[in-house]
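User: Is it possible to get a 3D structure for a protein together with its bound compound? The compound here is magnesium ion. I've pasted both below.
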Amino acid sequence: MQTNSIQKAAHIIAGGGVVAFPTETVYGLGANALNPVAVARIFELKERPSFDPLIVHIDTFDWFAKLTKNIPPEIIRFAKHFMPGPLTIVLEKSEIVPHIVTSGLNTVGIRMPNNAIAQELIRLSGCPIAAPSANKFGQLSPSSAAHVRKQLPDADYILDGGSTQVGIESTIVAFHGKECILLRPGIITPEEIALHLPEGYTLVAKKTESIVAPGLLQSHYSPKKPLFIFEKLPKSFPAKSGLIVHQAIEAPKVERCIFTSQTENYTEVAAHLFSSLHAMEDDKNIEQIYIQAVAESGLGVAIMDRMKKAAFQYSGQ
Ligand code: TXA
Ligand code: MG
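Assistant: Yes, that's possible. Here is the predicted structure of the complex:
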């Protein structure tokens, strides 16, 4: 089903249903975060393993106090600097957050999306919304309602908010004492995070220990066709190849060429990354996809993270 009433969607969420909705990053598949049965349907529809915790989406800071506990005031100030926006912060959870949401962890990922439809949906639903990206587990993330319909036609409702602006999932950080751990790179770069950390805090690279974050698995976000990353443009391509590049070049002889940007503008590349992969996945004339690498600094870190995971199963490793 696909229509566009936020009221209707909110009514479905409040009644225990599952709704796909836009955020500024990618589309989410949401249910009332405080209703474990509703949340269970997300796992079922997505075919997602139950060890993979969900992010809880909020519209006001009041929810912070209700959903988390023992949070130092300076971390709340840090959160307020970036929220609403594409940052998820993993914090100690309060008792009202059901275990199914956090896969049994004592922490919960909190995010306030910077998207008017998402905010209105949370407000009208009257509850925080637990939502993973609205794709089948392991497949490409959705940056449009059409991408959601392709993978999750059984959602109770799909709110269409057009193409998402950022295009890749939120940056995720967790706090352990005075350490801020980057769990998933995103459009908010490590440099920006480090700049706004409270005094005495340091940004550290991800540790493995007991944190469960399957978004960090090596293989994820994969198209259903072989995907190869290249740094130097190959001289020739096999028949039925799709090529994705990030700057204006004279397209070589390929079945189809998609430009995510004309000028290697990484904000544009991120915004069009998943949609270009979806387009190649859907194109019956394409049998394999070649995508140009980007430099791994700034936003390029998050873009390469998604590309490598998408290509991992085809990389011969
Ligand atoms: O931009 C986004 O973050 C999108 C939109 C819909 O908000 N959501 C999203 O959710 O990407 P998902 O479920 O596809 O990815 C969330 C990642 C997962 O890898 C999960 O393991 C991790 O966040 N995560 C969630 N709660 C966590 C927790 N308490 N501790 C560690 N990792 C957590
Ligand atoms: Mg996801």
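The chain has two domains: 3-205, 227-314. The mean pLDDT is 93.
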